[in-house]
Amino acid sequence: MPKTLYATLKALPGRRETLRGLLTALAKDVRAEPGCERFKVYTLASDPDLFHVEETYRDDAAFAAHMATEHGKVFNQTITPLVEGGGSEVVFLDAVI
């Protein structure tokens, strides 16, 4: 069963473009992971400092492999001083239809 989630990140004042660049680089790496089915980054239309990332992985094992990647660990460490709360807020989803 696919593992689907979304993550939100709110850039601190003046950090939007830095965060955008980091997310763009991360997207390239994550999309190359064998178990990644979707990794899409958005900003909120009414608040471009708020980023919304939609992710789907083939299954729990693919998600676990994603969490163990070096590029993911580096990204999470790097964004600490760039985003509100020091990291992303993650919500896991279950498909209805």
Automatic annotation (TrEMBL):
Source organism of the structure: Gluconobacter kondonii
Protein name as catalogued: ABM domain-containing protein
Domain (ABM) ranges: 3-92
PANTHER family in the record: ABM DOMAIN-CONTAINING PROTEIN, QUINOL MONOOXYGENASE YGIN-RELATED
Domain of life of the source: Bacteria
Xref: InterPro entries: ABM_dom (IPR007138), AI-2_Isomerase_LsrG (IPR050744), Dimeric_a/b-barrel (IPR011008)
